[in-house]
Design brief:
The protein has 910 residues and is mainly alpha-helical. β3, α4 and β4 form a beta-alpha-beta unit. α28 runs antiparallel to α29. The chain starts with a strand and ends in a 12-residue tail after the last helix.
Length: 910
């Protein structure tokens, strides 16, 4: 797997072509696919394009994997060489997976091969999904090479859409190309000019004028008038270097060739001979332009420029009237196609000045993309139209409303928010359009941006403005009814929900009815209602409408998150499966992303910690534009840091999870983060800080009145109250909590009640009762399962039994130390070992498999990790419950075994 990254003109394609040129002739198949800036919604187009010419390398159809028959409709050119098509599948997600398997099997059949995908930064989401699927387990003998511009990756920052970690059997290389420095420019220019003696002054001026971009250096050098003095570069000019070079090259072409080049420049994308000649070229002129090197032959009989900069240089040189008429001819030629490319039609209509056609084709392109599940492209098209200063004022309102509807299911929100605020501020919207745009703005702010402090006032204002449009107002009230946001009590949210349901009761709008039902199901699950699963069962997951199923995808995302909080993990997994299926079918990116995020929390709770820190961090890296909707990630990273004694890291992550502004964040997660922060303060002996945090969190929980959200708060909060001498407050809180969760279907909440009762009993030295409560909590957590919580409850039980003089408590502590260590909770394991040392029981740490004399023991690995984090010996001693002298000895051993002289050279052990 080779990823070649760099800016436009840096030489990515040139490097790949040079590498391919080193291959022995006939050594392997070379398959080339291209992603395009103006793309039509065609699934997996670049990879399909690359496979069209492999018929001669395929074995007989009967020797191919039968699954490759699924590609017959995608590759009609190969239909005779492929097995029969398998019967269609009812599940679109399964169908997509079969297509992916078929492509991988077909690539395996032609191996050894090199698959090259150019300009991955313009790839659609489906192509990225396919390439991730291939990259996870490349067929034997296949090399996958992709080029992309890092600066065009946007918020995602990853060429494959998310962090890529290669398979152990795959070699993965990232080749990052940077602009040349002065010496590099001198070497390139000297090679091009066959002049190794270029003056330093010339090289410095050339570097200054070209910024070291190889393609521009080459074009400038080739267009020099002959003099190699530095002043010669001033006459070429910047930024007109490429334009002048292209003008000089085109000056020697006949009018027929110029017409073909102009037609290619007008079309922007590589095009076939028929389309180029229809726009303004001739076959003879096209051939001349190719021989002159002005145009380049791409795969599948298409022709265009080697580089977008060259295309732009030629395009800008075409006189305005000629450009307009050329775009009109392009429109006519594209409209004559069986399936006119709507995005290209919109572009040419805009350039031709045909506003009516531009709006018609642009809106149709966005709607088509949304219908095909490519919500990101739909948003991109509408954003581009709204950004255009030539858009008539009267058309901005409908497009803004369309943008808001599409954005509600996507991930990107910054430009959407900016555009919606802009159209609201301009004042040209009708009152109805303004209210709907305000509602869309509020929903995007509250959901994608995670900024409820800004979003909820917009929704409330929109609901007031929509009093004469009750069905649309219902969407706003249903959004406000979600109790996880805001400080209003649960009763207020229930009122808003009833208002929304009353407004849609007589409405003939299936999508809106589904949206309100989704929020009702989410509300019932959020509060642990006994009827929550019954309501969830009524969701129209099989509705023929894409819009309705998109709403249900949102429901399953919510239900997965909430069922995870309540402790219904089997149900949560079912919701996740259905949610991902519907999200893939309908292009609902936002729910799909939230499913990934909340799955991280479910993996923590159910004890699947192996590699969890890396998975969580990678997911968080994708949220540069949406950091407030990945609070689950920060919560899990905080919990992991707490379990390993990384206090500063835990504090940072708990703040990001909602403690920076708990009343404006996602309250269930903020309360869980508060529970973690209380544990942290207690572990560090910061009694006053623990009590203050417990008082704040308990106050927020009381105001909301959704007591099941206290499951990850109550045991630590009760402990903080009790250890501070506030026994009465602790007892009152336990009683309130018991009343609040009575009758609720929330396994985690009921287990937490037993743990909280155990903490209260232990503080009052009622050790037998404490052991009983903790034992019930341990059993309840184990059944769910929540192994870490079960071990913590087991530790409470063991401490109570130790206080009662139970001789078997020591054995329990030893088992708990092992269990914590297996999970990765090194601080908890060390705490249990400290108890064993205090009661005079020897502790034998599990042996690590050594690899040479420098291998670290388990204790040394724990010390090394904390040293790498910059912790002092005293801090390490506090975390691992060791003496400072012991820690000093371990640190010295770590430095010796790692062969380093300083603590700053220690890196965290893998």
């Amino acid at each position: 797997m080779v990823l070649v990254e760099g800016e436009a003109g840096i030489g990515k394609t040139r490097l790949v072509r040079a590498a391919l040129g080193r291959l022995p002739s006939g050594d392997r198949a070379v398959l080339l696919g291209y992603c395009h800036q103006i793309r039509e919604p065609f699934p997996y187009g670049p990879v399909i394009e690359a496979l069209r010419d492999i018929a001669g390398r395929l074995p007989a159809p009967e020797a191919l994997n039968p699954v490759t028959g699924a590609l017959r409709d995608y590759l009609p050119e190969l239909s005779a060489a492929l097995p029969p098509s398998p019967p269609p599948l009812d599940d679109p997600r399964a169908e997509r997976h079969r297509v992916f398997r078929a492509i991988r099997a077909l690539l395996a059949a032609v191996a050894p091969a090199v698959l090259v995908i150019e300009d991955l930064h313009w790839a659609d989401d489906g192509t990225r999904d396919l390439l991730r699927f291939l990259a996870d387990q490349l067929p034997t003998g296949l090399a996958l090479v992709a080029t992309y511009r890092r600066e065009d990756q946007g918020a995602a920052r990853f060429p494959l859409g998310r962090a890529y970690r290669h398979h152990p059997d795959t070699t993965s290389v990232v080749v990052s190309l940077a602009p040349l420095d002065v010496s590099g420019v001198a070497s390139l220019a000297g090679a091009l000019l066959d002049r190794p003696d270029l003056s330093p002054a010339f090289a410095e001026r050339l570097h200054e004028r070209t910024a070291g971009i190889p393609f521009v250096v080459e074009e400038v050098v080739r267009s020099l008038p002959g003099s190699l003095e530095p002043d010669a570069l001033d006459r070429v000019g910047v930024p007109l270097l490429l334009r002048e070079a292209m003008a000089e090259r085109m000056a020697g072409l006949t009018s027929a060739a110029v017409g073909a080049v102009h037609a290619a420049a007008l079309l922007r994308l590589p095009a076939g001979e028929q389309l180029i000649t229809a726009v303004g070229g001739t076959a003879a002129g096209l051939g001349e332009a190719l021989r002159a090197g002005v145009l380049h032959e791409h795969a599948d009989g298409r022709y265009g420029f080697r580089h977008a900069l060259a295309q732009q240089a030629v395009y800008d040189a075409i006189p305005g009237p000629d450009r307009r008429s050329g775009h009109e001819r392009a429109m006519a030629a594209l409209l004559a196609m069986d399936s006119p490319p709507l995005v290209q039609l919109a572009f040419h209509a805009r350039q031709a000045g045909d506003t009516e056609a531009w709006l018609r084709h642009g809106a149709a392109a966005a709607q088509q993309a949304a219908a095909l599940g490519d919500t990101a492209m739909a948003v991109e098209v509408i954003e581009g139209m709204l950004d255009d200063p030539g858009l008539p004022a009267a058309e901005r309102g409908p497009l803004a409303l369309m943008l808001g509807r599409f954005a509600a299911t996507g991930l990107s929100h910054q430009r959407v928010v900016r555009l919606l605020r802009h159209v609201l501020r301009d004042g040209f919207l009708s009152s109805d359009e303004r209210a709907e745009a305000r509602l869309s703005l509020g929903v995007v702010l509250s959901n994608q941006a995670g900024d409820t402090a800004a979003g909820r006032p917009e929704i409330m204002a929109a609901c007031a403005e929509l009093s004469h449009r009750p069905t649309l107002a219902a969407r706003g009230w249903a959004s406000l009814a979600m109790p996880e946001w805001g400080v209003e009590p649960l009763a207020r949210h229930l009122e808003w929900m009833e208002r929304a349901e009353a407004l849609v009761a007589t409405a003939d709008n299936p999508e809106l009815t589904a949206a309100v039902l989704v929020n009702r199901a989410s509300l019932e699950m959020a509060i642990g209602s006994p009827g929550a699963f019954a309501v969830a069962a009524t969701l129209p997951s099989g509705d023929p409408s894409t819009a309705v199923r998109r709403e249900v995808a949102r429901a399953y995302s919510n239900l997965h998150d909430l069922a995870t909080s309540l402790g219904h993990y089997d149900a949560a997994e079912r919701f996740a499966r259905e949610g991902r299926r519907l999200a893939a079918e309908t292009g609902a990116q936002y729910p799909a992303y939230l499913l990934d995020v909340s799955t991280i929390r479910r993996e923590w709770l159910t004890g699947r910690w192996e590699g969890l820190r890396d998975r969580a961090a990678a997911l968080g890296e994708l949220a540069t534009e949406t950091p407030l909707i990945v609070v689950d990630v920060w919560l899990v990273l905080g919990w992991l840091a707490l379990a390993t004694g990384e206090w500063e890291e835990a504090t940072k992550h708990f703040l990001a999870a909602g403690l920076d502004a708990p009343e404006s964040r996602y309250i269930p997660i903020a309360l869980a983060a508060a529970g973690g922060m209380i544990e942290l303060h207690l572990a560090r002996g910061e009694q006053a800080l623990a009590l203050a945090e417990a008082e704040r969190a308990a106050g927020l929980l009381r105001r909301k009145g959704v007591w099941v959200w206290g499951a990850y708060l109550m045991p630590s909060a009760v402990t903080a109250f009790a250890w501070s001498g506030r026994i009465g407050a602790a007892a009152d809180l336990v009683a309130e909590y018991a009343d609040g969760i009575a009758g609720r279907v929330a396994p985690t909440a009921h287990a937490a009640l037993d743990a909280a009762r155990g903490a209260l009993a232990a503080a009052e030295r009622r050790h037998a009762e404490a052991a009983a409560h903790y034992g019930r909590a341990r059993d309840a957590y184990a059944v769910m399962p929540q192994p870490y919580a079960a071990a913590r409850a087991g530790e409470g039980e063991a401490r109570a039994r130790l206080a009662l003089g139970d001789a078997g408590a020591a054995e329990v502590f030893a088992r708990l130390a092992e269990r914590f260590a297996e999970l990765g909770a090194t601080h908890d394991a060390a705490r249990c070992r400290r108890v064993l040392r205090d009661i005079g029981v020897g502790v034998q740490l599990p042996r690590q498999r050594r690899n040479g004399t420098s291998a670290l023991s388990q204790r040394e690995r724990e010390v090394a990790r904390l040293v790498a984090l910059g912790r002092t010996n005293r801090e390490i001693a506090d975390v691992l419950f060791l003496s400072r002298r012991t820690v000093e000895s371990h640190v010295a051993t770590v430095l010796r075994k790692l062969g380093v002289r300083s603590r700053t050279e220690v890196t965290p052990p893998v």
